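Could you join me in thinking about how sequence relates to backbone shape in a protein? Would you write everything just below, so we can both look at the same thing?
***
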Amino acid sequence: MKHALKRLDSVHQKLINTIRPLDPDVYSERPAEGEWSVGEVVHHLCLVEDRVTKELEAAIAREPRRVA
């Protein structure tokens, strides 16, 4: 578990280090029609991570089920 959390923290830090120096125009610019900007990708990652976290919290709060 500690390894997984350490890895997640590492990935978060890499993402922050990668996008922090970007000019706001680059951050919001779409590379091509129909493609997402860096900002849109980051926003999507945040939404997905939030959803997964909520699902995990709900699963942890439920009574354990016995598996046959």
About this structure: The mean pLDDT is 94. Helices lie at 2-19, 24-28, 38-61. The CA atoms of residues 6 and 51 lie 20 Å apart.
